[in-house]
Design a protein that fits this description.
The protein has helices at residues 15-23, 40-46, 60-74, 93-101, 122-139, 155-160, 170-180, 204-222, 224-253, 258-293, 297-303; strands at residues 2-8, 28-34, 50-54, 78-81, 107-111, 151-154, 185-189. With 304 residues, it is α/β, with parallel strands linked by helices. The two termini are 33 Å apart.
């Protein structure tokens, strides 16, 4: 069974064609109406799609999370996600689903940069490639398009990579989770069109910063000693450098440099706070992992 899931918000102009074309390649279509103020949900329902209604706008990641939850309940062999604005070609659905049906991958990304697609604007390409480079370096995955919303997921991936981020950073979070879970990630070429479409309601700079911050947050919570700990150590070394300079000046000239001394103390204190934060987060994350792996005996007896 191939399940197509479409996050949508105020897409009444394009949702009909997306659903109709997707139905040619899917056994079932589910649309998450993310707080639309137009007829998006009504049109989707009239065309036979199952509609999940989010009363208020939760964001792209929140809509995806609801779709993952519904997919887990349905249990398809393949879940395919695509955007509701018409930029993705539903005829590419079989191309994305095939590696999963052939048991060659768990997550398949429809990459805009593996085909001869030349419709994306220069600033969009630069932003996507920058985010892709960051995601690839942090996850260890070989990627060309970390922001593509056209993806396919195996049954195992559906249960293990559902996003927590509510914004656009959900796209990279899913890939980070896939890497963490040792799932097989593959890219295939797809065709995208932006002509006549409003592909984002956000400022491109805001969009990019949101994704980068969300990705770094995910990594920092998974590796607090590496992120906050190293940052704290670097800050403390910087503060100690200012302190050493103050002491040298005092030894040579017998005069204190109060402002630099206070700056040194403030920087060292900040470094210590970052280091303590790293230790606390490391302890908490390990306790959570241990609890998830080995629940308390009382809880196990209660479930039994």
């Amino acid at each position: 069974m191939i399940l197509v899931c479409i996050p949508a918000r105020n897409e009444e102009r394009t949702i009909a064609s997306v659903i109709i074309n997707a139905k040619h390649h899917a056994d079932k279509v589910v649309v998450c109406d993310d707080g639309s103020s137009d007829m998006t949900g009504e049109i989707a329902k009239a065309l036979g799609a199952e509609v999940i209604r989010n009363p208020s706008t939760g964001g792209y990641g929140a809509a995806l999370a609801l779709l993952f939850e519904r997919a887990a309940q349905i249990g398809p062999e393949v879940m395919v996600t695509l955007d509701a604005d018409g930029q993705h070609n539903p005829s590419d659905i079989p191309t994305l689903a095939k590696p999963i049906l052939d048991q060659q991958a768990d997550v398949v990304i429809g990459s805009r940069f593996l085909s001869q697609n030349r419709t994306a604007r220069a600033y969009r390409k630069i932003g996507i490639k920058a985010i892709t480079r960051i995601t690839a370096n942090l996850s260890g995955l070989q990627l060309t398009d970390a922001q593509s919303g056209f993806r396919a997921y195996s049954r195992a991936a559906i249960l293990r990579v559902a996003p927590v981020e509510v914004g656009m950073a959900a796209s990279t979070e899913i890939l980070m989770r896939a890497s963490e879970e040792n799932l097989r990630v593959l890219e295939v070429p797809t065709h995208v069109t932006y002509k006549g479409l409003q592909t984002s309601t956000h400022n491109p700079l805001y969009h990019g910063l949101d994704v980068v911050v969300g990705t770094l947050k995910f990594v920092s919570l998974r590796h607090p000693l590496l992120s906050y700990g190293l940052a704290g150590l670097a800050v403390m070394i910087s503060g100690l450098g200012y302190g050493s300079y103050t002491i040298q000046v005092y030894s040579a000239q017998q005069r204190p440099i109060t402002n630099i001394a206070l700056l040194s103390m403030a920087i060292v204190t900040s470094g210590l706070l970052l280091s303590f934060m790293a230790i606390i987060l490391f302890t908490l994350t390990n306790l959570i992992k241990e609890y998830a792996t080995y629940p308390p005996i009382e809880s196990q007896q209660t479930e039994t």
